[in-house]
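Notebook entry, cofactor series.
This is the third protein in the set we're modelling with a bound small molecule. For this one the ligand is zinc ion. I'm keeping the input format identical across the series so the outputs can be compared line by line later. Sequence and SMILES below, as received.
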Amino acid sequence: MKFPKEVNRYCPTCRKHTKHSVSKYKASKERALNHGRRRVNRKKKGYGSFPKEIFKKNAKINKKTVPIFECSDCGKKHYGKSYRVKKFELQQV
Ligand SMILES: [Zn+2]
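Returned structure with ligand:
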């Protein structure tokens, strides 16, 4: 899928249509001591089953890609509609 690098879009903060630059959402690195990780570590120390079942059946092939729109006026970022596509390309129009 091809997506424009710049779009004219409504900004809720400015309350008008402004130019937005588009980028892809990227998951940040997981912190080593977040709550879920601490819980898993505690569970793995003791007796009992593995804390989380390992997922094996993948029904969906493609992961969701979320475009992020950044307003050129106020600099606020807005999330767009996500797409399940194999390829997500940003290109100049
Ligand atoms: Zn704005």
